[in-house]
Amino acid sequence: MSFVTGLECHLCGKAYPAEALWVCSECLGPLRVTYDYAAMKGVVTRALIESRPHSLWRYRELLPVEEPKTGFYSGYTPLVKADRLAKALGVRELYIKDDSVNHPTFSYKDRVVSVAATKAIEFGCTVFGCASTGNLANSVSSHAARLGLDCMVFIPNDLEPSKVLGSAIYGPKVFAVAGNYDDVNRLCTQLADRYGWGFANINLRSYYAEGAKTMGFEVAEQLGWRFPDHVVSPVAGGTLLPRILRGFEEFIELGLVSGKLPKIHAAQPAGSSPVINALEAGLDFPEPVRPHTIAKSLAIGNPADGFQVIASLKRTGGSGVAATDPEILDAIELLAHTEGIFTEPAGGTTLAGTKKLIERGAIKRDESVVVVITGNGYKTADVMRDRVPESIQVGKGLKDFEAVMAGTPELAGR
Ligand SMILES: Cc1ncc(COP(=O)(O)O)c(C=O)c1O
Ligand SMILES: [Zn+2]
Asked: Considering only Cβ atoms within 10 Å of each terminal Cβ, which end of the chain, N or C, has fewer?
């Protein structure tokens, strides 16, 4: 049974039926899904959710589908209590929400695509696609393959080779566009309009975005049905961060969690930080920038949902923080060395941002924080090439090994 009541414009509030619509015909604002929370009360309980398998569909009444078609192993990723990292950063309680191990394509995008692909089938789309900085294309390609959907993904032509391969392996048509993400997005908007194909993050966006709420649901459930004091999220197009907050608010609305909303903070790479710039300039709508950063998955200069990120920070008392490329690489290394988790530059951005927020006092040392790690380092391993030592070459005999031991000062005393 679906509790969806329709769609509503984020900006002017005009109501629409729950169809394949994505912008308001009055004001061009984005549309969001609305639900009948009153009917859900007492039906959607902690016990019901806990009785279900460990995937994002355990919250299915709060997702806008008739019947899930894919993503049966997506979501419900580990919430890792990161004590060694907490100690290194000097904060009491720190958790990594680890979507670097999401199924099946190792990023947070498996959440949003599970919902978007299901909707593409419900709406009878002949082609399923996306405009992507890499991870979304990986996920769309994989989910399309298992559903047998015709798939076309569009990416900027300067992405990391293993991210490109990570789409191509599933057999979609991969289009490497001569331009940046914002150019790719513009082209795909025209294609969605002309051909009526289902683009996860364009004409299916109202539904796609709903999948990101599950990050918020899981954080609260995995903490034992409570909120942390702070959440730090990366921001590119701005889908994820406002939906983490929306997830928390829906849990309050349904009486599943009580207490104060966490402060939600936004992290962006310094080379692509339109939202952070807007916050500093006191603007409600970000001004586009031309991205240049090692964090290619976050290289979006004109974020579609940037204004919602700003509104979410203001509503919760959170802040914005930018991290330089060297700080991002340092943070990737710190996470790997303290917690054994290898993230890509998007995760490095979030962790570098968290470190700064603690240093600034925006996150106090006796508080709790959840750091949202959204992507996997094995996809972008090359960025760390100069950061890791060469392997120690050794012959196969015991004497060979002992000669190396004797000649290598760092190995002394073992
Ligand atoms: C790993 C990773 N993290 C975060 C994001 C940013 O997400 P959003 O567009 O929802 O702000 C993306 C994609 O854009 C991503 O690939
Ligand atoms: Zn409107």
From this structure: C
What does the pLDDT look like over 319-344, one tens digit per residue?
999 999 999 999 999 999 999 999 99
Cα of 325 vs centre of ligand 1, distance in Å, is 17
* Backbone angles phi and psi of 198, in degrees to 5: -90, 105
Q: What is the pTM for the complete model shown?
A: 0.98
pLDDT at residue 412, as a whole number: 83
CB atoms within 10 A of CB 199: 29
**Residue 180 Cβ contacting ligand 1 at under 6 Å:** no
**Cα gap 35→249, rounded to integer Å:** 13
Which atom of ligand 1 is nearest the CA belonging to 309? 11
Residue 130, ligand 1, Cβ within 6 A: no
Assess whether the C-beta atom of 291 lies below 6 angstroms from ligand 1: no
Residue whose C-alpha is closest to residue 201's, from 188, 191, 214, 215 = 188
Q: Which residues of 264-294 are buried (b: 16+ CB within 10 A; e: fewer)?
A: bbbbbbbbbbbbbebbeeeeeebeebebebb
**Smallest-distance ligand from the CA of 274:** 1
Residue 375 CA, ligand 1 centroid: distance in Å: 8
Q: In the chain, what are the domains?
A: 79-105+214-387 (3.40.50.1100)
